[in-house]
Fold this protein.
Amino acid sequence: QVQLVESGGGLVQPGGSLRLTCAASGFVFSSYTMRWYRQSPGKERELVAAIPSTGGIPDYTDSVKGRFTISRDNAKNTVYLQMNSLKPEDTAVYYCNALYEAYSNLPPYWGQGTQVTCSS
């Protein structure tokens, strides 16, 4: 049974920080690119950050560069998103996503999401 379980969301003031955690199970974590997406009501889901299976060079959407850091621990089957200098526009449900690197046309796995709210 494949599971991606996000945690660490919550309410934070502008300029604050949160660290999201995605705990993976039921598949070979080290064979998957891990991604964080986010979605606000009425908007399409947006790719926030991605990290290759080996923990190589990550990718970020421009709006979070310099503020967010994605990392992974393959020994723990866990991926993280450190979010600093949060802004109200970062408010969204954040989803963990796992994409098989050997055949990326396969549908990815998705977590259930965790709510991040940045508000004063």
